[in-house]
UniProtKB/TrEMBL annotation:
SMART domains: STN
Name of the protein this chain belongs to: Secretin and TonB N-terminal domain-containing protein
SUPFAM superfamilies, per the entry: TolA/TonB C-terminal domain
Domain Secretin/TonB short N-terminal: 53-104
Keywords recorded for this protein, A-Z: Cell outer membrane, Membrane, Signal, Transport
InterPro entries on file: Secretin/TonB_short_N (IPR011662)
UniProt KW rRNA processing keyword: no
One Pfam family here: STN
Residues spanning the signal sequence: 1-22
Domain of life of the native organism: Bacteria
Source organism phylogeny: Bacteria, Pseudomonadati, Pseudomonadota, Alphaproteobacteria, Caulobacterales
Length: 219
């Protein structure tokens, strides 16, 4: 069946409009967002599904926090910034297509029944915000691993290390700078750290990262 000429012209015009809109969206990376205010962990999950981006964060960061609503056409970075407004959290987009959510320049992560703190120090002074954010993501992920290790989550101690990360996020090398006072515990940490895989680092990350861990039993 042949379509009337006016239908064909209308169809061509509609295709042209769709292609033009798609081209504009591709050019500026914008898309439509419609995300209500909700518990932050649910909002981050919805954002991940909507954008296809992997969200990397310590689950304790989302606890008790709510997102701000996001509505309209915008880039993913802008949408996430609006979503996190008022939460005290910040996001960093990695070259590998993931997003690291972090808070502050140092962190204190509560481990039941201990508290471990880690202050990341980048290899040279003047490191940019992206490098500092990445170091925070590395120390948070390491602390999560400490939580699950019976040896490393026990006792009161401090331990500082130098850590190098490969381009794919795998631990390339780790060295103890100042030990915990127990050789066995230091060896356990080196073994643990060498098996961890982190987000892909930013291309200009100063290495090694120097990270100090302090574990204290809560009395």
């Amino acid at each position: 069946m042949r379509l009337p000429r006016r239908w064909l012209l209308g169809l061509v015009a509609l295709i042209a409009i769709v292609q033009a809109d798609a081209g504009r969206a591709e050019a500026d990376g914008a898309r439509e967002f419609e995300l209500r205010a909700q518990p932050l962990d649910q909002a981050l999950a919805a954002f991940s599904v909507s954008t296809g981006l992997q969200m990397l964060y310590d689950s304790s960061l989302a606890a008790g926090r709510r997102s701000s609503p996001v509505s309209g056409r915008m880039r993913s970075r802008e949408a996430l910034a609006l979503m996190l407004a008022g939460t005290g959290l910040t996001a960093r987009f990695t070259p590998a297509g993931a997003v690291v959510i972090y808070a502050g320049s140092t962190s204190a992560v509560t481990l039941n029944p201990i508290t471990a703190t880690a202050a990341p120090i980048i290899g040279r002074s003047g490191a940019n915000a992206e490098a500092r954010a990445y170091a925070e993501a590395v120390q948070r992920q390491t602390v999560e691993a400490l939580r699950r290790d019976a040896v490393l989550s026990g006792g009161d101690y401090a331990l500082s290390v130098r850590l190098w990360v490969a381009g794919d996020g795998a631990t390339r090398r780790v060295e103890v700078l100042n030990g915990s006072g127990e050789a066995g515990r230091d060896a356990e940490f080196l073994t643990l750290a060498s098996t961890l895989r982190f987000p892909a680092p930013p291309p200009d990350l100063p290495q090694p990262m120097r990270i100090e861990f302090r574990v204290r039993q809560r009395h």
